[in-house]
Amino acid sequence: MEVLDFRSDTLTKPTKQMRERMADASVGDDFYGEDPTIRMLEERAALLLGKESALFVLSGTMANLVAIRAQVAPGSAAIVSASSHLHLNETGHLASIGGITSHPQPTPGGHFDLKALAKAYPVQKSNAKPSVLAPKLKAICIENTHNGEGGRCLGVHEMRLLADFANNRDLVFHMDGARLFNAAVALNCSPSDLVSPVDSVSFCLSKGLAAPGGAVLAASEDVINEARHWRQMVGGGMRQAGILAAAGLMALENNIERLSEDHDNAKLLAVGLREAGLNLTVDDVETNIVMAYLPESLGEPDTFHSLMRDIGVLTLPPKGNRFRFVTHRDVTRVHVEKAIQHLARLVSQVTEEMTHV
Q1: Is the alpha carbon torsion for 192, 195, 201, 206 positive or negative?
Q2: What are the structural domains of the chain?
Q3: What's the DSSP call for residue 213?
Q4: What's the rounded Cα separation, in Å, for the pair 6 and 313?
Q5: Could you tell me if 200 and 218 are in contact, meaning their C-beta atoms sit under 8 angstroms apart?
Q6: Model-level pTM?
Q7: Which tens digit of pLDDT belongs to each residue from 80-112?
């Protein structure tokens, strides 16, 4: 049975050409700053994003942690999206390692309500007495694209408004850009324009860019120097890791523009899932993530998930009645069309069985 795997875009495998590039990479000891391929990756990433400097790290989770800790002292607080990866899926590292309190705020569709945010966090008057009870608010963190909200994008104008909010309150502005290039491609803007308003930005090489691992943090030189210290603290110091950076370089050179194919396939999948009988809004699909909802008429989500697995269509376990489908380089249009056919038959079968219960 052919398996059609939509669990995540982390499932991509390095191509033969990428493996060859990794095998041929020039390497040195990165701890001493002597790995030429890592230096090339960091310089290219900084240039691509219009930042002074960049740092190669092991994962997006590590990038977010060292970025925020490099700029925010323990005992401080950070505004985060309540449905963000940073808040829900990074082991609580801001609190446990950074000593930073999170202030989760709703972000329906991936967007903060700026009016509500300004009301909740007003600009302090110059003569106002600071509270001795509350942690001092020092940062706001966003996710772009927003995974938990279906791969939704924050555009350049919205980024600037958020930067104004941050600047007026003297806050660090950090972007978890795990899928940053998906956003840039979907919005038809340059990555540097999109991240220009932020103080620091992370992005993953191992998702849609299809490298086997690694992430990059970009910021000012001072922030990167401090982040390098925190990378070492959490065990992220590397030696001859240019073999991994070589894959990242190839990903940046070859795999950004092709992300539009993943977006087209996700839109096709969304249309097919809706026609098959799942609930979703096709216009909400902006990048490579589709959030589809199981109607009550099709039974329990966990049962339906098992039936999907039995016919070779894989997603992560549902959250409530929501199923997440993610397209990527190794999921072709043909795979999407087959998945739609399989799921349409499954919905028809389940509907018939439910009718006779």
Answers
A1: negative
A2: 14-254 (3.40.640.10), 258-355 (3.90.1150.10)
A3: S
A4: 7
A5: yes
A6: 0.96
A7: 999 999 999 999 999 999 999 999 999 999 999
